Amino acid sequence: MNPLKKLFKQTAIYGLATVLPKMLGFLLLPLYTGILETAGFGRVSVIFAWFAIFNVLLAYGMETAFFRFYHGNEDKSKVVSTSLISVLVTTFIFLILGLTFQNALASLMDIDLKYIRFTIYILALDALVIIPFAWLRAAEKPMKYAVIKLINVVINFGLNCFFLLALSGLAEGSSEGIWNFMYQPNNEITYIFISLLIASAVTLSLMLGVYLDMNFSFDKNLWKRMMKYAWPVLVAGIAFSINEVFDRILLKYLLDPSIAETKIGMYSACYRLGLFMTLFATAFRMGIEPFFFSHSDTENPQKTYAQITNYFVMFGSIILLTVVVFADVLKTQFVRDEAYWEAMPIVPIILLAAFFLGIYHNLSVWYKVTDKTRFGAFISVIGAMISIGVNFIFIPKFGYMASAIATLLAYGTMMVLSYYFGKSRYPIPYNFRKIIFYLGISILFSILSFYVFDRNIWVGIILLALFLGLVYKLENEKLRKIFVKK
Q1: Residue 115: how many CB atoms within 10 A of its CB?
Q2: Angle at 146 between CA 144 and CA 150, to 5 degrees
Q3: What pTM, to 2 d.p., does this model score?
Q4: φ/ψ of residue 372, rounded to 5
Q5: Could you report the per-residue pLDDT of 206-262, keeping only the tens digit for each?
Q6: How far is residue 83's CA from residue 112's CA, in Å, rounded to a whole number?
Q7: What DSSP letter does each residue of 270-332 carry, written as one string?
């Protein structure tokens, strides 16, 4: 099979499975913004920001290290067992320490103690499935991966709907019984975390087979080499989390306390419309990451890597312009309460930031296949420093708009730095004329549609049609060779 065709096929399956949990954010956004006030949604968003940071800490780069050593080691079972035991031990330590110092954590994060307990349990459950899911990807079992991810989403979504929509009605219908026992008024945030906890527990139960089948062999030397590879990934991951979610935490501390959670709620709700680009970029990354390692020893892999990046930019440009053009339509479907719409001007900025991040992940192939992950850590730290600096300086004056611009500047800088450092260490023949053309035209048309013509949908549709026509004329023949030719 054409390697690019295989890549796109696996990307479609892994992408669907990976974006489903993120898509859950879209599915639940109308529910949360319809039931929770802006301040309540802001409170939940801050907790989710801490979730993202601790998820990275508990993974500590082991997932990426697992891929690197799984494909380069003859004794794959030893890589699996060493990785599983490592994550199992560190997760157990986290669980004990987290529960022991939960009061201190609640005070430090300014979060209610009952939410801290839920957070600790959910984080531990999610950490224990990191390597099992990585093994499914490395062993090219995309359907099983997708089914388990789908089950997680269905359970989480179903329980949210039950607790937030149905339970109160069931409790009112009977003065006694289980429904009345389960229902507590004004307990919506707790129900959100109960749903997450149950979904995570079921997911772990479905992945227990990976633990039960391992040979419990721990190779200390292998683990040291994996950790040496993983620590820069950890640093990069923490820096990435800062770029992605730390702005919510900074907004809480840098804005007037009387309006902080309300503004965070608005910002977080409209920020999620940028997830259309994030979903595409994540799906693509899930497909290309194993592909990069498995094809690094083939003849002239750089040519294939360049083609992959070209197609990513092409599809990403289409998504950028499409979401910008239909932003007002999307907001009525996903952010139905007008109280949140004040933050809509951030949407094109967040979309472009997510696009830059996706390009960065494509460009980052050079330091992953050459085991120079320290460059990834360095680049991500630079991005995090830009993000924190811009947020600290400008949030007091410009509020959440400063956070959106900080995200764009951080990811744009990371994209440029990755190319700059990689061009001499692992040259890849990118078609920059085509990349800049697609990127430039999509950005120009997005600015015209959203800001110049004030989101006039008919002008936007005309611009989108023109862009699609250009793409069809330039790429039709090549895409047909990939997807149609046997």
Answers
A1: 19
A2: 120
A3: 0.81
A4: -110, 50
A5: 999 888 887 778 889 989 989 988 888 888 888 888 888 899 999 988 999 889 999
A6: 34
A7: HHGGGHHHHHHHHHHHHHHHHHHHHTTTSSSHHHHHHHHHHHHHHHHHHHHHHHHHTHHHHHH
